[in-house]
Specification:
Shape: globular
Radius of gyration: 18 Å
Structural class: alpha/beta
Strand order of the largest sheet: 3-2-1-4-5-7-6
Oligomer: single chain
Order of helices and strands: HHHHEHEHEEHEHEHHE
Length: 273
């Protein structure tokens, strides 16, 4: 089967960074996430991932972040079998296939129309998963999603592309739409935003990064009175670090002693409403 993808714009093209990171993790002898579908997509398209300069350590960090979001989503749907799941800016991620969705849950992958068109060619259908072709900045996209069930919302890498005022507006619309739920996304400290514009792996996205970043995990609580921090997950302190290659493992363990240093790296922020 010949696959012809739409012409992605610069923002849509950012999906390759996380996709290739997950694919490269899968090619390791001992993958952290083991996303075989991401690897298959990259091989099917013969995508030149080398141009992105995703280092081995960056691939591990991308996979670790995806794994943590998977775990949070899995925990929520296990506690709320009738849940709605939302993956904001899903790209070519197949999270619904990696987690065990109850038969009574529904999962919605939201991204631009061209990305959704690509998803239709590359990701097998899932009986409980639905693609939503929309611009998240458009308030109307939530109208197609049920509003009477608890929701778990995840976003991987998306915060980087929105000024905080726009990101908070998106979250507020989601909070107002559902009766209750949880939201998890990777945070960007002010240092991380600056570093992403310097390190080679950030070259593919630095021109479109618009977030100012924030250092206090309780900052989003100021955006909506219903939003409450559950946990700031400093990834240097997570048990999966034990599975990292030796050098990277010890670097993370050293950073784990410092909250400030840990916040400069991989962080997942988990809230409830």
């Amino acid at each position: 089967m010949t696959i012809t993808l739409p012409e992605f714009d610069q923002l849509e093209n950012s999906l390759w960074l996380t996709l290739c990171g997950r694919a490269l993790d899968n090619r390791r002898d001992h993958p952290l996430l083991g996303d075989e579908r991401a690897d298959q997509i990259v091989r099917t398209l013969d995508y030149d991932y080398r141009a992105l300069k995703v280092s081995p350590s960056s691939a591990i960090y991308i996979a670790h972040r995806a794994l943590k979001l998977d775990q949070l989503a899995q925990d929520f749907v296990s506690r709320h079998p009738d849940a709605i799941g939302l993956d904001l800016g899903a790209g070519l991620d197949s999270r619904a296939h990696r987690i065990d969705l109850p038969a009574t849950a529904d999962w919605y992958d939201v991204d631009f129309p061209d990305v959704v068109a690509a998803r239709g060619q590359l990701i097998p259908a899932h009986p409980r998963a639905h693609d939503v072709a929309a611009d998240l900045a458009d308030p109307g996209w939530l109208d197609a999603i049920p509003s009477d069930r608890p929701a778990v919302v995840v976003a991987d890498g998306l915060l980087a592309f929105f000024p905080l005022a726009e990101w908070s507006a998106i979250l507020n619309r989601i909070i107002d739409h559902f009766p209750s739920g949880e939201i998890a996304f990777n945070g960007y400290s002010t240092f991380a935003v600056k570093a992403a514009k310097i390190f080679p792996v950030g070259k593919a996205v630095r021109a479109i990064m618009r977030s100012e970043g924030f250092d206090d995990p309780r900052t989003p609580e100021q955006w909506n009175p219903k939003l409450q921090l559950v946990r700031e997950i400093l990834m240097t302190r997570e048990p999966e670090v034990e599975q990292f290659p030796a050098g990277l493992r010890w670097a993370n363990k050293l950073s784990a002693h410092s909250e400030s240093l840990s916040r400069r790296g991989n962080v997942v922020l988990h809230y409830k409403f």
